[in-house]
Amino acid sequence: MKAIQFKTFGTPDVLEYVELPTPKPAAGHALIRVKSASVNPSDVKNVSGHFGHTQLPRVPGRDFSGTVVAGPDEWLGADVWGTGGDIGFTRNGTHAEFIEVPAAALARKPASLDHAQAASIGVNFVVAWLGTVEYARVEAGETIAVIGVSGGVGGAVTQIAKARGARVIGIDRHEPHPDSPAARLVDEFVPFDDQTAARVRELTGGAGAEVVYDAVGGVAFELALSLAKRRGRVVEISATGRRRVEFDLIDFYHNETQLLGADSAKLGVVESAPIMTAIAEGFDAGRFEAPVVALRFPLERAREAYEAVAGGTRGRVVIDAE
């Protein structure tokens, strides 16, 4: 099979278009013909050596959409999708013509999405689901402030929160892409600047938001804490620009703030499957919409796809493996 592989860490230049043996699925496993696979910022970081557990040589890629061509009889011919914090790191990933996964990792692709759209969902929606549904437990009638609303995770958080009946205040340096679901769904947009906290307080009657989902972290961490209502929940997933942060501990405990971390990379492809199934139900029920796919590249031009993501392309970047 054709695949993208890296043998050393570095810029996208280290990616090689190679021929590898097509996996032969072991008992209890399935072979998937990858139709499309997205490129996430974490894939670029993986190639750069950001993650200490990555084993080389490695085929990168976490998200995929494709068709089962070998494995359990009940899955043969099924269109499936998935993601995982193991694939692309400790097992070969999705930027290839085929990928082998345990049968327990199989989740049916939403019929409402084509393969390119389906491939652009995984990482963003899983970490959004973890923080919004499983950890912060956003409820109808609550207000959630989403820092980084214009990004992939922020857009997914917005969709999930709105589907649960929450009010969304979106925060970012620029407004969401005009064609994106987030642009249509946010109730209020607040620029990320020195007046952000004051503006959010105004919009919440001085109380703050019940939930703050900070998809930026680092430079936005203190702002995130300042936006939380008393006994509010703050979800952190990143540390952009600054790994170590300082905050007023007295204000923190007086406000009785709950601080939650969410890391989709801790979920392997098997552990992610139930969440992907729940998300698929949301898409087929019309509660969620696919994000904007900005660029598509054939597998042999995967290096360009990585460069586009590294360069900050707005919208999703997808590799078509077939």
TrEMBL record:
InterPro entries, sorted: ADH-like_C, ADH-like_N, ER, GroES-like_sf, NAD(P)-bd_dom_sf, Zinc-ADH_QOR/CCCR
Domain of life: Bacteria
GO molecular function, one term: oxidoreductase activity
Keywords, comma-separated and alphabetical: NADP
A Pfam family of this chain: ADH_zinc_N
Keyword Calcium (UniProt): no
Record-annotated Enoyl reductase (ER) domain positions: 10-319
PANTHER family, sorted: QUINONE OXIDOREDUCTASE (PTHR44154:SF1)
UniProt-recorded name of the protein: NADPH:quinone reductase
Source species of the chain: Paraburkholderia caballeronis
